[in-house]
Specification:
- This is glucose-1-phosphate adenylyltransferase.
- Belongs to the bacterial/plant glucose-1-phosphate adenylyltransferase family.
- It is an enzyme of class 2 (transferase).
- Pathway: Glycan biosynthesis; starch biosynthesis.
- 23% of the residues lie in helices and 24% in strands.
- With 319 residues, it is α+β, with helices and mostly antiparallel strands.
- The protein has a domain at 89-221: Spore Coat Polysaccharide Biosynthesis Protein SpsA, Chain A (Alpha-Beta Complex), CATH 3.90.550.10.
- The strands form 2 sheets. Strands 1, 2, 3, 4, 7, 8, 9, 10, 11, 12 and 13 form an 11-stranded mixed sheet that branches. A two-stranded antiparallel ribbon has the order 5-6.
- Helix 3 links the parallel strand 7 and strand 8.
- The longest helix is centred in the N-terminal third of the chain and has 14 residues, at 68-81.
- It starts with 5 loop residues before the first strand and ends with a helix.
- The relative contact order is 0.21.
């Protein structure tokens, strides 16, 4: 994989001015190219693994014909939009994954995020490390399948007594559970349903300061500064932001793919398309900052499964 590959984060068009008409899809986006370096270790077939170094390509400028009040207003707006995000207002939700059939027999007695890697570590430690190193110390982990080994590892590694000291943060395991009523008798029906069943947590008074929710997969292997990602999400005033990576034909059918316009707005999303549907998802990835040669090799834009939501929008979509 060339070190000049590029990843992108696509900011959804559910802007605050149009939130009332938003739906549960990710259509509409503004582009945020992200340059990446060479991979450092294999991905084990569970997700793209890259080094992320964002470069904001947007540059604000003031017209020479602007009046002083107009210029002052423009500068004021720019300062507000670029105010740094407080990590205390960000919570991470890490998805424990499904049955893990593609990694069998490694997943015979454990969930995918609990599969050992590098001797003393588990796959779950990769997104956990990304969170801790970028300052996100409020983490929920959703589990269901074969979760005993994963729960044990989390309890031993990330607790307040003899693990990482999180101060005012937390690491909480949210296991699939049944609740009173007919609707509460079923287990998680998917990743969105897993988050939906615990939306009441974000309405709790102790989580009132949370403004942004970042949703991650617990079985992907990559390095990324999530706060850079959340910062772009805030600066663009998007309701939803999606992190993506350009990929080639050989792997495109394994991922959710997007088509975008010249401004990077998501026009269409297809989950693991095949055949003619796959060919229809080809795009000119030079819009992401790739050279024509690079774009020809990687004509698809794949979702990395990393999302940022405004908390209020997430709750609205899942109700």
């Amino acid at each position: 994989m060339a070190s000049t590959d590029a990843a992108v984060a696509l900011s959804s068009a559910f802007f605050s001015s149009s939130s009332a008409s938003s739906s549960s899809s990710f259509l509409g986006a503004s582009l945020f190219p992200v340059r990446q370096g060479s991979p450092t270790s294999p991905s084990l077939g569970v997700g793209p693994q890259q080094n992320y170094r964002p470069h904001n390509l947007c540059r604000a400028s003031a017209s020479s014909t602007s009046t002083l009040p107009e210029l002052a207003h423009q500068l004021s707006v720019a300062q507000i939009q670029k105010s740094p995000v407080d990590p205390r207002t960000v919570v991470s939700i890490i998805l424990g994954g499904g049955a893990g059939t593609r990694l069998f027999p490694l997943t015979k007695r454990r969930a995918k995020p609990a599969v050992p890697i590098g001797g003393a570590y588990r796959l779950i430690d990769v997104p956990m490390s990304n969170c801790i190193n970028c300052g996100i110390k409020k983490v929920f982990i959703l589990t269901q399948f074969n979760s005993a080994s994963l729960n044990r590892h989390l309890a031993r590694t990330y607790n307040f007594g003899n693990g990482v000291n999180f101060g005012d943060g937390f690491v909480e395991v949210l296991a699939a559970t049944q609740r009173p009523g007919e609707a509460g008798m079923s287990w998680f029906q998917g990743t969105a349903d897993a988050v939906r069943q615990f939306t009441w947590l974000f309405e709790d008074a102790k989580n009132s300061e949370i403004e942004h929710v970042i949703i991650l997969s617990g079985d992907h292997l990559y390095r990324m500064d999530y706060m850079d990602f959340v910062q772009k999400h805030k600066d663009s005033n998007a309701d939803i932001t999606i992190s993506c990576v350009p990929i080639d034909d050989s792997r495109a059918s394994d991922y959710g793919l997007m088509k975008i316009d010249s401004k990077g707005r998501v026009l269409y999303f297809a989950e693991k398309p095949k055949g003619d549907d796959l060919k229809a998802m080809e795009v000119d990835t030079t819009v992401l900052g790739l050279s024509p040669e690079e774009a020809k090799k990687t004509p698809y834009i794949a979702s990395m499964g990393v999302y940022v939501f405004k908390k209020d929008i997430l709750l609205k979509l899942l109700r």
